[in-house]
Amino acid sequence: MNTLRMYVLLIRASIRSRMQYKFNFWLSTLLAAVVNATDFLLISIILWKFDNIQEWSLYDIGYLYSTILLSKALYRSFANDVHHLEKYLVSGDLDGLLIRPVPVLLALMSQNFRPMFGECIQGGIILTLCLSHMMSIGQVTWLAVPLTLLILVTGAALLFAIGLGTATFGFWITRISDLQNLTEDAARTAVQYPMDLYPLWLRTVLLTLIPVGMANYIPALYVLRGEFGWWLLPGVMLFTVVFLGLMLRFWKLGLTRYQSTGS
Fold first, then answer.
1. Nearest to 102 by CA among 35, 11, 37
2. pLDDT tens digits, residue range 203-241?
3. What is the pLDDT of residues 29-49, one digit of tens each?
4. Name one Pfam family in it (predicted).
5. Phi, psi angle pair for 104, to nearest 5°
6. Sign of the C-alpha dihedral computed for residues 29, 17, 69 and 140 taken in this order
7. How far apart are CA 218 and CA 49, in angstroms?
8. Pick from 214, 189, 62, 72: nearest CA to 131
9. Which candidate, 236, 263, 260, places its Cα nearest to that of 98?
10. What are the contacts of 179-185 at 24+ separation with CB within 8 A?
């Protein structure tokens, strides 16, 4: 509880700092919403010409798109600078976090708190429209709503674990932006669409080595199609807990290898 209280205090301080530039904050929020809305609009225009792709309708794909977008928004809102660890390693600013009386990861997560309202609003609208349509045709029931909320939280934790594992490699290679493009950006973009479209080797990578498919695609198989059974979501949650635990241990190992810039 003391750790949680400290995190909340650091977040509040970060928000006060960011809100010193209110116009910049709200403008960036608006632009983020417009960019993401345009992105999905282009996808919708292309998919509108087809009844379905590999038996996935436009609304099914909208569900995949919005859940991964919202999970990413949650992760990046509460742990944004984990994704930007490279700048701390290059500049030596990580030294300042090491001398704080809080865990280094907690201090890093509370830096530059960035609530991603644009992505949350846009993702929420798409998710609401898709679920409403699927309920109206009887594809899903009201139970899909609480299950989807659970998927969003689990997905955010899984994306955080992937981001943390990728960032930890920075303690050895320093420059990790290209690696992040692969493990976070490219992988997350891939699972915006049904994984049925991809060859077996790529599906295997997205479910094991970079398990981002566990964040939305695998849970959606049960929520939207009733495949596998009720145990699928608890199984994904257990996988997320184990994977996150492994990445936290990997982070601790990487931290022991950190060498200051000496600046």
1. 11
2. 999 999 999 999 999 999 999 998 888 899 999 999 999
3. 566 666 666 666 666 666 666
4. ABC2_membrane_6
5. -60, -45
6. negative
7. 26
8. 62
9. 260
10. 180/83, 182/210, 183/210, 184/83, 184/159
State the Cα–Cα distance between residues 7 and 174, nearest whole angstrom.
26
pLDDT digits (tens, 9 = 90+) for 47-94: 666 666 778 888 999 999 999 999 999 998 888 889 889 988 888 888
Helices (H), the chain: 2-18, 22-47, 58-78, 85-91, 94-98, 104-109, 117-136, 144-168, 170-173, 177-180, 187-190, 200-207, 213-225, 232-256
The structure's pTM equals 0.85
Nearest alpha carbon to residue 205 among 219, 190, 223, 220? 190
Q: What's the pLDDT score for residue 223? A: 95
